[in-house]
Amino acid sequence: MSVLTRRLKYETEANIDIVNITSDVSSAIDNSGIKNGFVTVFVPGSTAAVTSMEYEPGLISDLTSVLEKIAPSDVEYQHDKKWHDGNGFSHVRASLLGQSETFPIINSELANGPWQQVVLINLDNRPRYRELILQIYGE
């Protein structure tokens, strides 16, 4: 079994910036030589998330609305009282969504559904430079 590490870099906008990274993940798999196995996509940081979704304007809007309802940006968070950076809501949202996802690789291809894309979400209240770590493992 082989394990390979790849990194992907993105500049993201403030608040909820959802970036479709599916083609970049697929390219990393293509160049890995792994035919069957898994890829884990991980974003270091506590104000970003990785998930999968149908990447289309309606769902992007829906997800943004739901996150605002679950962890509103206009309420006071204990985190903000301590650090005074105003991004307590970003940390809560990222904790709920999670920083990684693992996907199967079958016959050298990312095994995602036809309407399922891999996305990076910057949830911070300012633009951020994000570096993702991909661990590709298999045979």
Oligomerization state: single chain
- Structural class from helices and strands? alpha+beta
Which spans of ≥5 residues are poorly predicted at pLDDT below 50? none
Spatial shape: elongated
Family: Belongs to the UPF0047 family.
Organism: Methanohalobium evestigatum (strain ATCC BAA-1072 / DSM 3721 / NBRC 107634 / OCM 161 / Z-7303)
Pfam families: YjbQ
Protein name: Secondary thiamine-phosphate synthase enzyme
SSE blueprint and pairings:
Blueprint: E1 2-12, E2 17-20, H1 22-30, E3 37-42, E4 48-53, H2 57-70, H3 78-83, H4 88-97, E5 100-106, E6 109-110, E7 117-122, E8 128-138
Antiparallel strand pairs: 1-8, 2-7, 3-5, 3-8, 4-7, 5-6
Q: Quick summary of this structure?
A:
With 139 residues, the chain is an alpha+beta fold. The protein is built from four helices and eight strands. The radius of gyration is 16 Å and the shape is elongated.
Question: How would you explain this protein's 3D organization?
Answer:
The chain has one domain: Jelly Rolls. With 139 residues, the chain is an alpha+beta fold. The protein has a five-stranded antiparallel β-sheet, covered by helices on one side. It contains four helices and eight strands; from the N terminus they run ββαββαααββββ. It is elongated. Pfam families: YjbQ. This is Secondary thiamine-phosphate synthase enzyme. It comes from Methanohalobium evestigatum (strain ATCC BAA-1072 / DSM 3721 / NBRC 107634 / OCM 161 / Z-7303).
